[in-house]
Amino acid sequence: VLPLLLLSLLILISTLNPHIYYGDISTVELNSNFQKIFKDFSGLGYTPITNITSHIMEDVAREINMQDRLEFFASEEDLENASLYDPSSYIGV
User: Fold this and answer.
1) Where is the signal peptide (predicted)?
2) Which of 1, 8, 27, 78 could, after both became Cys, cross-link 73 (CB 3.0–4.6 A)?
3) What are phi and psi of 43, to 5 degrees?
């Protein structure tokens, strides 16, 4: 009886809890002048911190010439707080 009660509660909670949808970002092909696009950005931050994400983001930062502006954050909340001052010029991954 308890498993059925818990299953019913899970179904009820999942139907009442709305899903969060994020807006789409269109993809573009980067041409030879793509570094000009990123020169105005103040920072490039990412989370979670793992060996794989660090390696990938270091490669990305090197490719777009933002090695000195690459930051890592322990949580998504810390990443959001870092971009609060000027969110339009901060890239968060």
Assistant:
1) 1-18
2) 78
3) -165, 160
